[in-house]
Amino acid sequence: MGDGEVSKSIETRLFIHGEFVESSDGKTFDLISSQNNDLLVKVSEASEEDTNRAVASAKAAQPAWSALSPKHRGSYFKTLATLIRKNNGEFARLEALSMGHPVSGYFHAQVAASTFDYYSEAGYDIQGTTSLNNPGYLSMTYRQPYGVAAVIIPWNVPMLFLAKKSAPALIVGNCVVVKSSEKAPLTSALLATLVKEAGFPPGVINVLSGHGHISGSVLSHHMDVRALTFTGSTRTGRLIQEASSKSNLKAISLELGGKSPAIVFEDADLDAATKGLVHSVQSNSGQTCMASTRIYVQDTAAERFITLFKEKMEAEVRSGDPLEKETNHGPLVDVTQFEKVKRYIDIGKHDGTIILGASPRTPSTGHFIPPTIFTHTPESSLIMKEEVFGPIVNINTFTLESEAITKSNDSEYGLYASVYTKNIDRAMRVSRALEAGTVAVNCTSPYTSVDTPFGGYKGSGVGREGMPFHSMEFFLETKSVHIK
Ligand code: NAD
Question: What are the transmembrane regions (predicted)?
Fold first, then answer.
């Protein structure tokens, strides 16, 4: 696909104060196809001046926006949700082109629409408290928005994160500056066109494209940004937390990386376990924060499990052009990610035993990595410790429950963990012992429920997001008021 075909049909400029503009210094960056190294389109790179202007616009718009009733604010959400649904096909196409997600399994825009729908009604749920406990006084709390909230998102599931972060920030009365990922900016730009069509007042939602340096860093150091919600790597999360402490101590929510363990006991339904775990490792070509990439199977069931797992993985995967309906395994997002994953495969081959790692159906050009399985890898190997973000899984064995728990928890990450067993006592014990923000029993990632909090233990994050209250709570200050 040449530059012309994509660029004619898609907005690539910055959305500031309700208008699309080129970068103030005219700079753009190249967006490269995930399938081949062709230039897809040139995208505006937000400068420091653009970023400051977006923050100023949000700051100026916020008093009037927060003065509206939640119902009024929510009415814009309903229109936006309808427009997102109408454009689902285009969202899917743009994500396939830029980050290689197959159109066949594309659900991100639908989730984004449902999220805006949900929050369109949720604003009234936010209320303060009153107290008559202190004689002579009426005490109460107000919940008030911060003002300007920054939303920094990754490339792997962009629309879902954009909606899950922006909608709660907005419905409680903040205005937002969204910074999309330089690897997948097109769907955020499309969403900005729908924000305009939906008639949101200028400045309520601003959308910038660009890299961590400059726009991401300017936002995280900005004195007028009072809350920042981030999803991305642990490395960037640390930089953002540092920027917050060096600037204005803005409130920070961090959803970071993972190296999720799954424990399979000998009494588990091995068919169900392999089905769930193969999908967990393979979906989005392994570029999923909560992918179950460390599997610990009880030694007595290991041979059966590994045979089933390998068979299922080989049978499931249909690599190819992400725009084709049959494809369920697209290329990795770009050459950097491709080279990074290949380096981990070399480590895996050196430290462990590879039992699946090539497929005749893998296209020979493009950033395709076939699902790859390693066994017998020492726990100290880098491939067991670091997040790979590709369709790579390590399967190791254990004898005792305590050993499985120790190995699972021996990680700086703690985003998600799974346990497969038919023994309810064991399921309860193990789920309590695992150090992870989410534990799945007899199921695995990417399963999450819409009404429980999501977030990480340890290096996987700070704070919790989710419906009904966690995300909205993050975007609100609490004030105590005493009346004598
Ligand atoms: P990344 O950290 O490289 O980039 C994420 C965003 O941060 C991008 O928009 C990027 O431009 C921006 N950024 C980069 N440097 C910055 C800086 N110094 N200041 C401010 N912003 C900066 O992550 P990625 O490669 O886009 O995404 C993959 C990572 O995200 C993986 O580690 C994955 O596990 C994680 N992730 C976590 C979750 C979760 O819910 N916990 C979900 C999805 C992805």
Answer: none
Question: Do 201 and 299 belong to one domain?
Answer: no
Instruction: Please tell me the residue having the least CA distance from ligand 1 atom 32.
Output: 233
Distance between Cα 62 and ligand 1 center (Å): 27
Task: Specify the pLDDT at position 10.
Answer: 86
Report d(CA 422, CA 15) in Å as an integer.
52
Please tell me the total count of domains within the chain.
Answer: 2
pLDDT tens digits for 324-349? 999 999 999 999 999 999 999 999 99
Say yes or no: 78 and 172 in one domain: yes
Q: Assign residue 122 a region: left if phi > 0, alpha if psi is -120 to 50, beta otherwise?
A: alpha
Cross-strand pairs, 152: 179, 230
Full residue range of the structural domain in which residue 53 is found: 3-256+460-483
pLDDT at 4: 42
Kindly write down the DSSP assignment for every residue of 193-247, as one continuous string: HHHHHHTPPTTSEEEE---IIIIIHHHHH-TT--EEEEES-HHHHHHHHHHHHHT
pTM for this one?
A: 0.96
123 CA to centre of ligand 1 in angstroms:
28
Query: Residues with Cβ within 6 A of ligand 1?
Result: 152-156, 179, 181-182, 211-212, 216-217, 220, 231-233, 236, 239-240, 255-258, 289, 387, 389, 415, 456, 461
State residue 239's pLDDT score: 98
Q: Which of 45, 157, 180, 181 to mutate to test the pocket of ligand 1 (most atoms within 8 A of CB)?
A: 181
Measured on CA atoms in the order 320, 348, 457, 270, is the torsion positive or negative?
A: positive
Q: Are residues 284 and 235 in the same domain?
A: no
Report how far ligand 1's centroid is from the alpha carbon of 323 (Å).
25
Cite the active site residues.
255
Residues 279 and 402 in one domain: yes
Ligand 1 centre and the CA of 395: distance in Å? 27
